[in-house]
What does this fold into?
Amino acid sequence: MNLKIERLQESASTAEIMASFEKPLDKITKKFLLNDGLDYVRVVGCMKWLWFQWLLRGSPKAITERTTAFVAEEMKRMKFSPLFNHRPRHNVLLLQCAIYASPKDQLLSLAEQVVDSSGFKNYKPQNNGELYESAWSGLFKYWILGDQRKALSEAETIWKPYLPPWLKGASKPLLSPWVHHDWNAFIQAQKKDFERLWSSGRKNGTVVKETPSETVVTVERYPVEQVWCWAHCGMALLAHRLRTVQVATDPFWFPAHALECVPV
It folds into this structure.
């Protein structure tokens, strides 16, 4: 595929600003964490930046260094904030950032700290999107930690509650073989998911122009947590880095360069 991505570098710069990578834990930030909860928008910016770095074929070393520092900072904020508000969405998306580029020790440490569908402290997730987000966080948490029984339980929980429009995980045909470690079936499901994504992209404006010689796409103002296949990429990279599975890739949705950016 001859793929052209409009204004990719500019979009990567916007995502970098959104992530505010060097923002310190100052008085204003602490007040926000105490009164409003964790800042998931900042994490969305980091996840978006990571995808764009794959598309730009950025330096794996530089990607890992920046992501590691970002995840470490967010883990400090997780400990500082006493609130559940925004925590599930923040946690599951921060896990994606760590899956994509953090060293294994940091990934394991983060997995131990994120929420699952049981809640946080004395708070139980409500069926208003919180339970769905928490179950996704719990699924990745226990898969990373190697607790198959709990991972299966979280996977079952995902399909029961309200599915919020602001966070879209992977489909059941993709998730099921992954959580059961059926890698041949997972790879086949990946390929079907890429076909579905391209079909959706032609309808939602992601594909700007398509000719026999070129496919033009846009990532400007792209709501990655709602439209991009973040969970698909997270599952595939975990299978690749922790189970050495030769997963399928796609030049746009899941570039092969992503496989070069995970620390060994």
